[in-house]
Amino acid sequence: MKTLWALLCLCAAQQAWAEDPSFKLTTGLYGGGQSAARGIDVNLRNTSKLGDAWVGWYLQPAVNNDETTRQKQWRTGWDNTFTTGSVRLQPSLQAASGGFWGGSFGVETGDTWYVGAGLGRTNLRPYVNLNFDPNDALMASGGYRWNAHQSLGFQWVRDNRLNPDQRHFHAIYRQGLSEHERVTFDVLSKAGSVTDSTGGVQKIKKLGLSATYDWHEKFVRLSYDPNANFGVQNMWRFSLGTRF
């Protein structure tokens, strides 16, 4: 899933980079300290006048031939931005095998300085959340765009359904290095309750980081997310992608 929330915050910044190639193919490798958390994800996205439509497949192999540890899921979704006056409306929809569905709706305004807010909801069916931000949540965002190639944004996501103390705060900086190259840094601060393998609950405050180098048609990303999905696993993600 390209997130319920990254769609809302990053949409305007991505538009200048999505004008020519209409497809984006991304392969992600996921791993951490426990072999059960290792997996691979393949995602294909198409951008057109109808918005962004995508389909993805995630596979987490069985560990020690224990089929209960295997995970696999097809996912699909759509998002778009509709502009009315100075306001941008940003809906998204997601569905996945196993009966999952979800959606979000965001509102954003401003060009150089901007602010936004949003809400996400799911039916709470099993879902491989590869973005790791809470999906049943409230969101607020804001930032400053110097131009199409340089911006600093902030994003606050808080679970408002099952675990209201779980929250993420992102600081996202983008810098263009040339007409078709840029770097992006996403610093994550997260806090909330985590249930360990013994059933005990502890409060955490952790920092994570994602770094992306983009050649316009190709990109590479390395991310570290502690206590991913507010579980016990510290997750590394390595992604390669191409636009065509």
Explain how this protein is built.
Strands 1-2-3-4-6-7-8-9-10-11-12-13-14-15 form a 14-stranded antiparallel barrel. The protein has 244 residues and is mainly beta. It starts with 5 loop residues before the first helix and ends with a strand. The relative contact order is 0.16. Helices cover 4% and strands 62% of the residues. The protein has one helix and 15 strands; from the N terminus they run H-E-E-E-E-E-E-E-E-E-E-E-E-E-E-E. It is globular. The protein has a single domain, classed as monomeric porin ompg (Porin, Beta Barrel), CATH 2.40.160. It has one helix at residues 6-14, and strands spanning 23-32, 39-48, 51-60, 71-79, 82-84, 87-96, 100-109, 113-122, 137-147, 150-159, 167-178, 181-195, 201-214, 218-225, 235-243.
Kindly state the percentage of residues in helix.
Answer: under 10%
Number of helices: 1
Head-to-tail CA distance between termini: 20 Å
Q: What is the correct CATH architecture?
A: Beta Barrel
Number of E-state strands:
15
CATH fold description: Porin
Report low-confidence residues grouped into runs of 5 or more: 1-18
Can you tell me the number of structural domains? 1
Side-by-side strand order of the widest sheet: 1-2-3-4-6-7-8-9-10-11-12-13-14-15
Range of strand content: over 45%
User: What is the level 1 CATH name?
Assistant: Mainly Beta
